[in-house]
Amino acid sequence: MITIRFVSCEDIPHIQSIAHETWNxxxxxxxxxxxxxxxxxxxxxxxxxxxxxxxxxxxxKRKFLIAEYNNEVVGFAQTSQVNDEDYELLRIYVRPxxxxxxxxxxxIQEFIQVLKPIKKLIAWVAKENHIGRSFYEKSGFKESxxxxxxxxxxxKTQKKYELKITNERL
Length: 170
Fold this sequence. Notes:
With about 170 residues, this protein is of the alpha+beta class. The protein is built from 5 helices and 7 strands. The longest helix is centred in the first third of the chain and has 16 residues, at about 10-25.
């Protein structure tokens, strides 16, 4: 059974483990190993995650979710508010062995409910990230633009995907 719930500080070790597994699985052929390890050590440091979880706990609109499958933490997702009714999906990661069973879609549906009123959910995805792009396209997101992003000397084309939230989705 899939359960989507709000994050807590007890989830930090799970988030770190999932981030390491999914980043290596998803981005291993896109970015160098050194880049991935360096990024993970910064973005998913205990200190950064504690700050992120604490901000979420204080927010009226919770933006950091955890997925459990049969009581095991298997994924996480986080959004950031862009403007009054638009949110960016900053990260959504599910352990590879739990792909294609509805967890990613569960996150999207939960965000639509928790973040009301919401008009649009956007996500930036590396052009070479075929796993992510396929997920967004199957979930109803439409590609709207692209840009070149340079992080620590690595330049990659990023594609913007948008999901317009209609009354049928609410």
